[in-house]
Structures are given as C-alpha cells and as structure tokens.
Amino acid sequence: MLKIKTPKSGKAKREIEKRAPKLVESGKKTLILQGTKTSNVLNAVLAEIYHLKKDSAVRYTRKNENIRPFESGGETSLEFFSLKTDCSIFVFGSHSKKRPDNLVIGRTYDHHIYDLVEVGVENFKSMESFTYDKKLAPKVGSKPFIAFIGEGFESVDELKHLKEVLLELLRGEVVENLNLAGLDHAYICTAVSSNRVFFTHCAMRLKKSGTIVPRMELVEVGPSMDLVVRRHRLPNDSVRKEAMKTAKEQPKKKVESLKLYFYHRHIFPPSM
C-alpha cells in the first residue's frame, strides 16, 4: 500500500492548498520539454515559446527517452513531470526522419493526459529575424489578443481541436476587466488549408484616431511559423464530462453585527 504523507510545515501546507481545486482557477502553467533528438529549428521554437510564456512556464532541456505521446506506456513520464511541476499544459518537441520538427501540444486533467495535438513546424522565423523598434517589444505577463481567421476553425475537426489547445496555451490567466494600455501584443492564427495554420505574433501600436478609442496598428515581431496538423487525439466522453464539472459556490457567511461581535467575545465597549 502507498504511504500517504501529510504536510507538517506551513510552507508545505500552503503549496498543497495552491494545488487544490478552486472555484475560480488561476492561470495554467506550461511544461516545455524535448525528446532524445531535436533540430536547431525545434530548439529555437521551444526557446521562443518559453520566452513568450516565461512568467508561467517550466522548461526542461535534458533529453527524455521514455516520453512517446500517442503510444501506450509512453506517457507515464510525461504525467510524472506534470505532477512534479504542477503544469496542466505541455509542449513536447522531437525530431525524426518520419516526423521532422515535430511538436506535440497537450493538456492534462488531474495530471493524466487529457488530449493531444501533433503539428509539424515549417517556415519558422525567429524573433531576431524581424526588425522593429525595441520599445514595441511585448512586456512579460501582459494579456494578448488572440485571433483565429478562417472557416476551417469552425468546420474542420482537427483545426477546431487545435484552436482549443492554442487558446489554453496562449491566453494566460482569465480576467474580467482589461486596461487598454496593457494590451500590447496579439497572436494571429490563419487557417491556410484543412490541415495548415499560419501562426504569427504581432506587437500593437496605439495611434490617435480623433475619437476616444485609439487606432491600432500591428507590427510583426515574431516568431512566425506554419503549423501542419499531423495527428490529434480527443478526450473520451467520460473524462470530458468529469473535467467539465463545475462546483457550486458556497453561500457567504453572514457578517456579525458590531454588537454581536463584542458580545460573543465578552468585550463591551465603554459606556457613553
């Protein structure tokens, strides 16, 4: 039988509380890792994804021989790293003759593989290949716009699934209100065909428009690449149903009046 250890220190208890289920989930962390063989292009792609998500990402640069997504028994190590780092999204890079410059993007539920999308990277351009005013560089932690252009994202199953996964990967923490001045970059995904998506990253420049709402200009700052969908695996219905469950909000406790507060604690205010 497995021995269950209970946290004793205050720090350990706070870490356990952070990982516990919440009514309003915080931003999801991303795990970035690689297989036994990678290419220079793939290393650059992984490095720039980590740079874009540096405030909420963990990257492992060592080779991992036991990770083989889509294969039976090849996902155990991946689930272990997900539990260890408390990451619910992962990006796994590998390179082979059959599948060159290969990226697998997936999500986990309860630190078990939930779904997978495998894409090939083509026509990659790094941030360094773009010339622009460095003052336009997006700030770490700022919220992005995400645009999906093309009917394929609504009609093709592979692209609909890729859209869901990219949204989870790129959007960061969900918020209700935004300051317009804090929106400084956008991710644009264009469906070129039924299995190919052009991905680019742009900085947003605010210009005067003569009205209260400023005019926005997009300046490409990279990276950019073509993502060719190779394989994808949807979650089964039972797991999806379990993951979509939402907890009911607990009723708020009634706040005691000042008089009851003093009464219950046997503290009586001085008489006037």
From TrEMBL:
Coiled coil: none annotated. The keyword Nucleus applies. The keyword Nucleus applies. GO terms for molecular function: rRNA binding. It is found in: Nucleus, Nucleolus. InterPro entries: Brix, Rpf2. Its main location: nucleus. PROSITE patterns: BRIX. Residues 28-238 form the Brix domain. One of its GO terms (cellular component) is nucleolus. Pfam families: Brix. One of its GO terms (biological process) is ribosomal large subunit assembly. Belongs to the RPF2 family. This is Ribosome production factor 2 homolog. It comes from Vitis rotundifolia. The lineage of its organism: Eukaryota, Viridiplantae, Streptophyta, Embryophyta, Tracheophyta.
